[in-house]
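Fold it.
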Amino acid sequence: MTDDLMKSSGSGDAGNSTHADEQRLYPKVRFRGFDESWRTEKLKNIGESFSGLSGKKSSDFGHGEAKYITYLNILNNPIIDTKLTDKIEIDNKQHLVKKGDIFFTISSETPQEVGLSSVLDTNLNECYLNSFSFGYRLKEISMFDNLFNSYNFRSPNFRRKMYILAQGISRYNISKKAVLNETICFPKISEQKQIGKLIKLMNSLLSLQQRKLELEKQIFYALKTHIFAKDLFFNGQKDMIKYKLKDVSNMYQPETITATQMSTNGYKVFGANGYIGHYYNFNHKDDAITICARGASTGAVNFVPGPVWITGNSMVVDIDSKLINQLYFYYYLTTLNLKKYITGGAQPQLTKEILNGINVNLIPINIQIKVANILVLQDNKIKNINSKISKTRLLKQFLLQNLFI
């Protein structure tokens, strides 16, 4: 479907141009075969608002023959999840929702969550709207595609309008009247359907990738759990030798880096949470195993490809290569739960003395290498899926920014 996309032949920047006495609007990217300008209307001119539940007490909720759409359902879903409605008694004074309705959140602790929308894509019997949201019903529903509306009202361009309308300090609110005064742009319904299908396809792809990622992570966890069990890759405890960490490695904390050592052409710098910049010099030419020694990530174990400058918050673990395969030992350390050795209370830290005293169990190095190869293979699968997810998200973000006005 993406092969059918092309740059807009309209005007250029956000697609705005003036022709005769009329302003013509075009998205930056659109499907081939569509060249008409988009229509722009104020919401109050093409639809009407309605309120959510009113006059209810807490005892009225959680039971009854009717149901209502919750605030969180709107907040978390561009299209209402009909399985996530709550019960309430039937009340003929309340406004019933119907297919095609668009719901907006009125209040939130952050401006990013105010005015978030969700579309009802199916008819529900005896269903109302929660009191912390308001509903919007289009007058000519046949002119609109529900999938398109669900993404259009959450597009970056429309969301920016909602941020501006959000008012408050500790809690943010939005005026229903102000929302209805905003404009929305839309093409003819055939183009709406194409756009809706494409974004839905992107969402489905992301969901599949996320499920695959979780599955591969579970496999990785199971592999590590069972591989490091004492009797899986070697003959019980017969081939296992117990050491203290200090007997098989040398640990040290790198010096603190100063601002004068910075350089955009230098080596990568590895902090507790990953690469944080570049520096002119480096203090570790080879790959390294690091343990975060203090801060919020204390106890985290990382494998850092060299050459690299490692910050003073991390402990470098140099191993005895005659006894230990480096990758094997990295994966082994990630299973030890080093957080249980943390001291310091409000300022958590791991000291060299504590780490040196930790017991480690080692198997013959030839078996270590086999184990490491298995784990690296699975670890790389996870990294590849993460890379695909990042690219899919970037593509989706590009489409949301450029398929809509």
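The radius of gyration is 29 Å.
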